[in-house]
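Troubleshooting entry. The earlier prediction with zinc ion gave an output that would not parse, so I re-checked the input for stray whitespace and re-submitted. Clean input:
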Amino acid sequence: MASAFTHAFSALALGSVLQSGKLGKGLLLTGMASAAMPDLDVMAFWLDIPYEHPLGHRGFTHSILFAALWALGLGYLFWRKSSRELLTRWRIWLFLFLCTASHGVLDAMTTGGRGVGFFIPLNNDRYFLPWRFIRVSPIRASAFFSEYGLKVMANEIITVWVPCMIVMIIAWIFRQVRQA
Ligand SMILES: [Zn+2]
């Protein structure tokens, strides 16, 4: 896993590209929470579910299907409040889907653990991307607030936060140019 802060921050970058802020702060915060949420599957360790099990860590909650369903379920709540316009509904779903799916993508670029079960339940293989430069974050919160935890955070700032900030700045410039 990358840290929950980093997953949430990547959702902010997605929000700036998709201009989800226009759809309300609630949606943006939900996207940030959705980006961190898949790691609730660490509960599998306490339930004695093995890592390699489809419901184990980096299993189903990190899959593309889960992200699609999660976005559909949460999106429905926002659809009821927001415009009935199809394009708006599509953008809400897409934002929540990308936020949730981004979690697995970042995990697949980490240096530790096993790969990500992107295609569960179709196949239980675990995958990494060819680029693995994000230092894996400790699972236990206590370990996160340690010297190693600080190194992880410093690495994530360089490998994820800075690129996300660049994306946000480009998206902002793009919006200014379009409005001008
Ligand atoms: Zn994860």
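This one parsed fine. The pocket of zinc ion is lined by residues 1, 38-39, 58, 62, 103, 107 (CB under 6 Å).
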